[in-house]
Amino acid sequence: MTPTPADIDTATDADLPGILELQAAHQIARGGMLSAEFPRSRIEQMMRTLPLVVARREGRVVGFLMAAERDMAAAPPVLRAMFAAYAGAPDAYVYGPICVDAAERGQGLAAAMFSKLRALQPGREGVLFIRRDNEASLRTHRRMGMREVAGFELDGIGFAVFSYVG
User: Fold this and answer.
1) Cα separation values, 42 from 56, 63, 85, 114, Å
2) Coil, strand or helix: which one is 34?
3) Which terminus of the chain has fewer Cβ atoms in its 10 Å neighbourhood, N or C?
4) Which residues of the chain fall short of a pLDDT of 70?
5) Sequence spans of domains, the chain
6) Residues 43-90: pLDDT tens digits?
């Protein structure tokens, strides 16, 4: 049986429980690759400044793509290291994190959410980091047309910096 098509849209407050659940399930401590876990209040703040894109299947959040203004997101050490390695355009924003439920991977949801974000931020540069040990994410982002522009190491972990223009 073919799954119902996913709905790719801008997140609403009603999506927050699903985003928080998916985010928690994919933390590094639980075997996932998300290196940050944002509290609800931080996600709400991010949603007020830039679009947060979600993938829903039958009303359930099965993926999300966050974005943040560079000045709001510049505090964590990993983002300071990223922008030290690659400054980006003056109006560049932070892409990510992106997360797709394990059962939903390989169906183009990451690319669909990325396409939606680019349409909502035309002409703006997005900058992101990916752990070098996350081969699946590196491959996916290269396939989506992003280019590696720099690299850095933080706490003994290697990261690649990618960039794209919407």
Assistant:
1) 21, 18, 25, 21
2) strand
3) N
4) 1-4, 72-75
5) 7-165
6) 999 899 999 999 999 999 999 999 999 876 546 888 889 999 999 999
- The CA distance from 124 to 110, in Å, is 19
Helix (H) / strand (E) element for 63: namely: strand 60-69
Predicted model pTM: 0.90
Q: How far apart are CA 53 and CA 35, in angstroms?
A: 19
**Single-letter amino acid code for the residue at 6:** A
What does the CA dihedral 70, 73, 77, 78 come to, rounded to 10 degrees?
-70
Burial 32-48 (b: 16+ CB within 10 A, else e): eebbeebeeeebeebbe
User: Strand order of the sheet with strand 60-69?
Assistant: 7-10, 53-57, 60-69, 93-100, 125-131, 157-165, 147-154
Q: Could you please state the CATH topology (level 3) that the domain comprising 7-165 is classified under.
A: Aminopeptidase (3.40.630)
> Could you give the CA distance from residue 53 to residue 60 in angstroms, rounded to a whole number?
13
